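Weekly sync, protein design subgroup
Attendees: M.S., D.O., the rotation student, P.L. (late)

Item 1: inverse folding check
M.S. brought a backbone from last month's batch and wanted to see whether the design step gives back something sensible before we order anything. D.O. pointed out we never logged the input encoding, so this time it goes straight into the notes. Structure tokens as presented (108 positions):
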């Protein structure tokens, strides 16, 4: 089934809402505001590809966090398949955080 641009936009907003419910256990800020999500691509058939990183390659949640992201995004209504690519290029740094995240962590 092909979705319209508006439907894809709605699915995208829903995905972002879900991503904001996933937290890095070491930092009290969600992974979206932290800037760990580099890209979310959604095809006409609502296949989703997420490119994300972790705060460090040795992050204690390296196994569980990507799986949690994948499971939560897959649960979004109308989402078909979810492919998750973990990358460390470019490496995450504090500049990638949103203003809100920096404020939350007392960095502003």
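Designed sequence read out in the meeting:
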């Amino acid at each position: 089934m092909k979705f319209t641009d508006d439907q894809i936009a709605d699915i995208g907003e829903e995905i972002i809402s879900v991503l904001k419910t996933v937290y890095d256990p070491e930092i009290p800020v969600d992974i979206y505001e932290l800037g760990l999500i580099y890209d979310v691509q959604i095809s006409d058939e609502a296949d989703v590809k997420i490119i994300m990183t972790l705060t460090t390659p040795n992050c204690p949640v390296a196994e569980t966090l990507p799986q949690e992201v994948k499971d939560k995004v897959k649960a979004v209504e109308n989402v078909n398949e979810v492919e998750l690519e973990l990358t460390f290029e470019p490496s995450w740094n504090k500049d990638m955080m949103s203003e809100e995240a920096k404020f939350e962590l007392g960095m502003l």
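Discussion: The longest strand covers residues 37-42. The mean pLDDT is 94.
Action: P.L. to compare against the previous round before Friday.
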